[in-house]
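User: quick one, fold this
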Amino acid sequence: MPVVRPSDAVVHEMHGARFVSYAAPSTGSEELCAWRGEIPAGTRAPAHTVSREEIFHLLAGELLITLDGATHRVTAGDTVIINPGATLAVENPATEVAVSWVTTSCGLEATLADGTRVVPPWAN
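Assistant:
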Protein backbone atom coordinates (compact mmCIF):
# COMPACT_ATOMS: atom_id res chain seq x y z
CA MET A 1 0.00 0.00 0.00
CA PRO A 2 1.71 3.19 -1.11
CA VAL A 3 1.62 6.13 1.25
CA VAL A 4 1.60 9.54 -0.42
CA ARG A 5 3.03 12.20 1.87
CA PRO A 6 2.12 15.88 1.46
CA SER A 7 5.67 16.49 0.24
CA ASP A 8 5.08 13.93 -2.55
CA ALA A 9 1.81 15.47 -3.78
CA VAL A 10 1.94 17.17 -7.17
CA VAL A 11 0.66 20.76 -7.37
CA HIS A 12 -1.09 22.16 -10.45
CA GLU A 13 -2.67 25.59 -11.00
CA MET A 14 -5.53 26.28 -13.41
CA HIS A 15 -8.25 28.95 -13.74
CA GLY A 16 -7.08 30.65 -10.55
CA ALA A 17 -7.37 27.52 -8.39
CA ARG A 18 -4.74 25.19 -7.02
CA PHE A 19 -5.02 21.40 -7.31
CA VAL A 20 -2.87 19.20 -5.06
CA SER A 21 -2.88 15.66 -6.46
CA TYR A 22 -2.41 12.77 -4.03
CA ALA A 23 -3.84 9.71 -5.77
CA ALA A 24 -3.23 9.21 -9.49
CA PRO A 25 -1.48 6.66 -11.72
CA SER A 26 1.75 8.58 -11.11
CA THR A 27 1.49 7.80 -7.39
CA GLY A 28 0.40 4.17 -7.76
CA SER A 29 -3.38 4.36 -8.04
CA GLU A 30 -4.86 2.13 -10.72
CA GLU A 31 -8.51 3.23 -10.78
CA LEU A 32 -9.09 6.36 -8.71
CA CYS A 33 -7.71 9.87 -8.50
CA ALA A 34 -8.04 12.20 -5.53
CA TRP A 35 -6.92 15.76 -4.96
CA ARG A 36 -7.32 18.72 -2.67
CA GLY A 37 -8.66 21.84 -4.34
CA GLU A 38 -7.88 25.30 -3.05
CA ILE A 39 -10.24 27.92 -4.50
CA PRO A 40 -9.26 31.49 -3.56
CA ALA A 41 -11.84 34.12 -2.65
CA GLY A 42 -13.37 35.72 -5.74
CA THR A 43 -12.42 32.86 -8.06
CA ARG A 44 -14.93 31.90 -10.74
CA ALA A 45 -13.95 28.77 -12.70
CA PRO A 46 -15.41 28.36 -16.19
CA ALA A 47 -18.29 25.96 -16.73
CA HIS A 48 -17.16 22.55 -17.93
CA THR A 49 -18.73 19.20 -18.68
CA VAL A 50 -17.10 16.18 -17.02
CA SER A 51 -16.62 12.78 -18.61
CA ARG A 52 -16.63 10.80 -15.36
CA GLU A 53 -18.38 10.90 -12.02
CA GLU A 54 -16.78 13.15 -9.42
CA ILE A 55 -17.40 13.23 -5.69
CA PHE A 56 -16.73 16.79 -4.46
CA HIS A 57 -16.53 17.28 -0.68
CA LEU A 58 -16.07 20.77 0.75
CA LEU A 59 -13.68 20.72 3.71
CA ALA A 60 -13.62 24.46 4.47
CA GLY A 61 -15.28 27.63 3.23
CA GLU A 62 -18.29 28.11 1.01
CA LEU A 63 -18.87 27.90 -2.74
CA LEU A 64 -21.57 28.46 -5.31
CA ILE A 65 -21.72 25.35 -7.45
CA THR A 66 -23.82 25.43 -10.58
CA LEU A 67 -24.66 21.92 -11.70
CA ASP A 68 -26.61 21.56 -14.95
CA GLY A 69 -27.95 25.11 -14.59
CA ALA A 70 -29.04 24.87 -10.94
CA THR A 71 -26.94 26.88 -8.46
CA HIS A 72 -26.35 25.52 -4.96
CA ARG A 73 -24.65 27.21 -2.01
CA VAL A 74 -22.29 24.58 -0.62
CA THR A 75 -20.70 24.93 2.82
CA ALA A 76 -18.06 22.97 4.75
CA GLY A 77 -19.15 19.38 5.24
CA ASP A 78 -21.37 19.25 2.14
CA THR A 79 -20.75 16.71 -0.62
CA VAL A 80 -21.75 17.17 -4.26
CA ILE A 81 -22.17 14.17 -6.56
CA ILE A 82 -21.39 15.15 -10.13
CA ASN A 83 -22.52 12.56 -12.66
CA PRO A 84 -20.75 11.92 -15.98
CA GLY A 85 -21.97 14.37 -18.61
CA ALA A 86 -22.96 17.00 -16.05
CA THR A 87 -21.93 20.62 -16.56
CA LEU A 88 -20.31 22.20 -13.55
CA ALA A 89 -19.20 25.72 -12.63
CA VAL A 90 -17.58 26.70 -9.33
CA GLU A 91 -17.43 30.16 -7.75
CA ASN A 92 -16.06 31.31 -4.41
CA PRO A 93 -18.06 34.42 -3.40
CA ALA A 94 -16.58 34.44 0.10
CA THR A 95 -13.56 36.29 1.48
CA GLU A 96 -11.63 33.13 2.43
CA VAL A 97 -10.08 30.27 0.49
CA ALA A 98 -12.39 27.28 0.07
CA VAL A 99 -10.80 23.84 0.38
CA SER A 100 -12.26 20.72 -1.24
CA TRP A 101 -11.44 17.04 -1.62
CA VAL A 102 -12.38 15.47 -4.95
CA THR A 103 -12.36 11.83 -5.99
CA THR A 104 -12.98 10.47 -9.49
CA SER A 105 -11.86 7.61 -11.70
CA CYS A 106 -8.64 7.95 -13.66
CA GLY A 107 -9.08 9.38 -17.14
CA LEU A 108 -11.38 12.28 -16.30
CA GLU A 109 -11.70 14.87 -19.07
CA ALA A 110 -13.51 18.19 -19.03
CA THR A 111 -15.00 20.04 -21.98
CA LEU A 112 -15.31 23.82 -21.80
CA ALA A 113 -18.29 25.70 -23.28
CA ASP A 114 -16.28 26.51 -26.44
CA GLY A 115 -15.64 22.80 -27.06
CA THR A 116 -12.05 22.81 -25.80
CA ARG A 117 -11.19 19.49 -24.14
CA VAL A 118 -9.06 19.65 -21.01
CA VAL A 119 -7.27 16.62 -19.61
CA PRO A 120 -6.47 17.63 -16.03
CA PRO A 121 -3.01 16.28 -15.15
CA TRP A 122 -4.09 15.77 -11.53
CA ALA A 123 -6.79 13.29 -12.65
CA ASN A 124 -4.74 11.16 -15.02
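User: anything notable?
Assistant: Residues 40 and 97 are 4 Å apart (CA to CA).
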